[in-house]
Write a structure and sequence with these properties.
- The protein has a single domain, classed as phage-related protein like fold (Alpha-Beta Complex), CATH 3.90.1690.
- The chain has 7 helices and 14 strands.
- A 5-stranded mixed beta sheet has the order 8-14-11-9-10. Strands 1-12-13-4 form a 4-stranded mixed beta sheet.
- The relative contact order is 0.23.
Amino acid sequence: MHTSEKWPDLLEPNVKVLSDEATRFDSKSSMLSKIFDMKKSGKSYEKFSSASTVDDFESFTGTVGYSDTFQGFDTRIEFPEFVKGIKIERKLKDDDETNIIASRSASIGHSYVRSREKVGAQVWNEAFTTDSNDNVTHSEGGELCASDHAYTNGSTATQSNEGTTAFSATSVEATRQLMCAFRGDNQEIISINPDTLLVPIGLEETGFEIINSKGKINTDANNVNFHEGKYKLMVWKNFLTDANNWFMIDYNLMKQFLKWYDRIPLEVNQDSDSDTLVAKYIGYCRFWRWWINWRFCFGHLVG
């Protein structure tokens, strides 16, 4: 016997298809794949360990000098559960003449993409604060952008990748030089290539002028623009919440050190226990992100 209580079964394939289509459409404008090293995980958590680099070569005088290497900081990423549901009334299904059901079904996919984008942008929105979320254990602790990053070789010295200077051509060059002075955990010279600027939408015009102008910025001098074509400009529209904060990035290092793992991709399931004339569809997924080394960026917290 077919009863009205079973009617959600008739909607289930359509809801899943529309949600999936919305996900694919929204993902086209996503910044996540441009920012993160994105992978799938088949484990309950992912863990990363690091070690310091080897000291410089030296002249051979009869014996080999051996470098001391040090255990670096560890990072462990766990995967929280995310859910969101929609309800569709039987009467609405029967009387739907304006495609409302289709829009409701697709809304799960839209919400999924938007929620992931917000989680990804939190890395930058909270770059200057200590992240207290329970999904990551990072043995260094502290902020992504900080003035007191520690070495692991026992030195009491620290390094900084945090500034407070407003976005301009002058501050871009000053920041480039500061990034090139980063040192490894043995306090040795390392290769840093600042080649990308990440800004909110309010700084997009300034960023475009800095990297595309032929002449020196905001001056009538006939100097050439040192920054022309030097950087890639990335604008995370609507998701970077501070209108003034900005970041300089070594893009290749960012794609190594900024991790995203999808544990369970979006699933849309029907609530099979429903005994009312309301169909319930629940989206479920698990994912998370984190940085395993801070040296890919320099951030400015602009008051």
